Structures are given as structure tokens and as C-alpha cells.
Amino acid sequence: MKIDFNEKVTAFHRAFSDENKCLKLLADLKWEQGFVCRKCGHTNYCKGKSPYSRRCTRCKAEESVTAHTVFHHCKIPMNKALEIAFLICIKPDISSYEISKRIDLRHMTCYSFQKKIINCRDSSINNKLLKKVIASLNSTVNATLN
Predict the structure, then answer these.
(1) What CA–CA distance (Å, rounded) separates 50 from 62?
(2) When you count CB atoms within 10 A of the terminal residue's CB, does the N or C end of the chain come out lower?
(3) Is 115 contained in some domain?
(4) Quick count: other Cβ atoms within 10 Å of Cβ 111?
(5) Residue 50 CB contacts under 8 Å (≥ 6 apart), including other chains
(6) Is residue 107 part of a domain?
């Protein structure tokens, strides 16, 4: 049974309907091996000020869930950012115009973020987390479809 593109997008919307679900997914994947402070190397943390951020209990440095990822300094809502990444990975030839129409964002916003995702995906340095995110999105969407 072949699942079409629109069914996958609909399943994505059901699975990742709000910002918190997306941030939780990102946090779970980013810190699946445990938290390590980038400043002092300490592994104990407490909850930070923003959702799913972590604060080192030794040096008090706070790290957001998007820090040091392709989603760092992302101004668009996380569910739309993940949707752009998902669309690019399930349909690599999708245009930024089509993305813009589908998720109701300005074309240049979609174009810029699409380029950022593609550059990260094609880079051998920073794409580990992006690959994990996409794999997790795909497995969640496929589970939703079944």
C-alpha cells in the first residue's frame, strides 16, 4: 500500500499539532545521551526558564532546546519549522513556493529556512540531530498512518 504525500502531511499535522510536542521531540533527541553543559562539562541540570531548556546546576549556564541545532535562532513556530524540514525530506524537489502555500508563511521565510535545512542535511558536520529528527518524524507519521 503506497501512502501519498498529502496523507503523510495530514498525519504530520495530527502528530505535531502544537509547539510543545515539537519541542519535546527535539529535547528528547538532543539529550538522549544525557545533558552535558557546554560551558563546564557538568551533567546535572534543572529546568530552565524557557520550555524544555536545561540549566547547569554548577555554572548556571542555560541551554535552550534549539541551541546548537539547525533550529537555532529560528523565528517561526517550531511546528512550522519541523514541517518545513519534513516536507523537504519526504519530497526533496518541493519548491519554496509550495511550502509557503502549504504552511501559510512568507515565501522568503520558507526559502531561507529551506536553504538552511538543505545545507545542514548536506553537511557532514551538523546533520546528526537533523537526521534523528527526520527519522523520528517519519516513524511517528508512519505510526499515525497505520
Answers:
(1) 9
(2) N
(3) yes
(4) 16
(5) 64
(6) yes
Does residue 47 form part of some domain?
no
Q: What is the residue range of 80's domain?
A: 5-32+73-145
| Residue 100 vs residue 125, higher pLDDT | 100
Query: What pTM was computed for the model?
Result: 0.86
Total length of the chain? 146
Is 70 in contact with 60 (CB distance < 8 Å)? no
Q: Are 59 and 40 in contact (CB under 8 A)?
A: yes
Q: How many domains does the chain have?
A: 1
Alpha-carbon distance of 97 to 111, in angstroms, equals 8
User: How high is the mean pLDDT of the chain?
Assistant: 90
| Residue 134: all three cell numbers together | 527526520
Q: Tell me which H or E stretch contains 45.
A: strand 45-47
pLDDT digits (tens, 9 = 90+) for 19-50: 999 999 999 999 999 999 999 999 999 999 99
12's enclosing H/E stretch is helix 5-15
Tell me how far apart the alpha carbons of residues 137 and 76 are, in angstroms, rounded to a whole number. Answer: 18
What whole-number distance in Å separates Cα of residue 24 and Cα of residue 94? 27
CA distance 117 to 99: 13
